[in-house]
Amino acid sequence: MHDLRTLRADPAGFDADLRRRGLEPVSARVLSLDETRRAALTTLQERQSRRNALAKQIGQAKRAGEDTTALEAEAVQLRDGMEACEREAAEADLSIRSLLAELPNRLDAAVPPGRDEADNVVVHERGAERAFSFAPRQHFELGEALGLMDFEAAAKLSGSRFVVLRGALARLERALGQFMLDLQTGEHGYREHSVPLLVGEAAMYGTDKLPKFADQSFVTTDGRWLIPTAEVPLTSLIAGDVVAERQLPMRVTALSACFRSEAGAAGRDTRGMLRQHQFQKVELVSVTAPEQSEAEHERMTGCAERVLELLEIRFRRVLLCAGDTGFGAAKTYDLEAWLPGQQAWREISSCSNTRDFQARRMNARMKRDAGGAPEFVHTLNGSGLAVGRTMIAVMETFQEEDGSITIPAVLRPYMGGLGSIAAGGKAA
Predict the structure, then answer these.
(1) pLDDT tens-digit profile of 201-215?
(2) Please, what are the domains in the chain?
(3) Which terminal Cβ of the chain has fewer Cβ within 10 Å, N or C?
């Protein structure tokens, strides 16, 4: 959500930010609606004052035994006119709020220009590319050959974009999630939560998933939404609250199932686990004072990178360009893992600073220890990491010529000491 006062103060700057995202200017339309609303409220106040004066006149006239018919008729007209003004102001206010709710966040000045992912900027790359003496296979080829990744069984149960994992691969998925949680809570100071997978409309709206992304989410018959990410319930924990400055920054995390309809993804990544309707993810959420959020963004991204470093996965950090930055984000870093089977970089984490965009939508504020009026907090979210995609990177990076998969050393305690998943589905 945007601050109408800021738009009034600099409509040209507001429109310039929209143009950076390839959108048409809207300030003239918003300001016209705002003028209508303010004019209606001014007229309402004037009529209320006149009606109050009439009430006194009518009372005086009645006490004097005078005819009050004309005065009472004017009062009725004023009442009807006031109701019309209230409707006009309310309709204009609703139009403004609806329009602003559909506009993306304003971009950070550091966000580079560009239309799509081809214009994103690589910040740095970590890890060496593994030299294979054989042609590396993709994860679904490996998983199906092992007999531990079954897309046909999942399709029988649920349709496309689902998978059934068995045996050591099911355990590997669980191990990755637990490893990530332990790292983020034990070393990076995030507090673990177990959150609902179903939330109300207010939580989805407050975290900018509605109305923009309604078609990309699943909703139940009673109006609850399956979470597209644990960002939604974690961030919404502070909705409507005023937190003390000394409580910030707040850092929370959760490992949860996530659900996305993948609307508009027809024909994209139809093979394998890259684009699923249901997947596991460790989510990182931070709530900060405004002056802390830029540093927190760097810190959060580093926390996500640490997972890949310990797993010895080759990755790079990418600063998203204006056209590729998400709706609610002011600035986003993506972490992309190198997948040898695909011979491609693929997103494995996205870490965003939304500044006060979400806080305004959910009315989440902070109170300075030194006093003063409450002000909106800044919220940040990131993947620490997407578990399924991390498993893909592990499988493709540590595959062997015989189809077995070596388990990274850091994961072996979570796998009961197993060193590899052998061909035929056996663990070794």
Answers:
(1) 999 999 999 998 999
(2) 4-101 (1.10.287.40), 117-421 (3.30.930.10)
(3) C
pTM confidence score: 0.92
Distance CA 236, CA 203 (A): 6
Q: Which two tokens stand for residue 18?
A: 């929209």
Structure tokens at 227: 């979470």
Euclidean distance between CA atoms 321 and 119, whole angstroms = 6
Report yes or no: 423 and 399 within 8 Å, Cβ to Cβ: no
Structure tokens, 258: 């996530």
pLDDT of residue 428: 46
> What is the C-alpha to C-alpha distance for residues 334 and 319, in angstroms, rounded to an integer?
7
HEC secondary structure over the chain: CCCHHHHHHCHHHHHHHHHHCCCCCCHHHHHHHHHHHHHHHHHHHHHHHHHHHHHHHHHHHHHCCCCCHHHHHHHHHHHHHHHHHHHHHHHHHHHHHHHHHCCCCCCCCCCCCCCCHHHCEEEEEECCCCCCCCCCCCHHHHHHHHCCEEHHHHHHHHCCCCCEECHHHHHHHHHHHHHHHHHHHHCCCCEECCCCCEECHHHHHHCCCCCCCHHHCCECCCCCEECCCCHHHHHHCCCCCEEEHHHCCEEEEEEEEEECCCCCCCCCCCCCCCCCCEEEEEEEEEEECHHHHHHHHHHHHHHHHHHHHHHCCCEEEEECCCCCCCCCCCEEEEEEEEECCCCEEEEEEEEEEEECHHHHHHCCEEECCCCCCCEECEEEEEEEEEHHHHHHHHHHHCECCCCCEECCHHHHHHHCCCCEECCCCCEC
Sort strands 121-126 and 149-150 into parallel, antiparallel or unpaired: unpaired
| Residue where the block lists tokens 């139009």 | 95
- For the chain, percent of residues with pLDDT exceeding 90: 92
Q: What is the pLDDT of residues 252-264, one digit of tens each?
A: 999 999 999 986 6
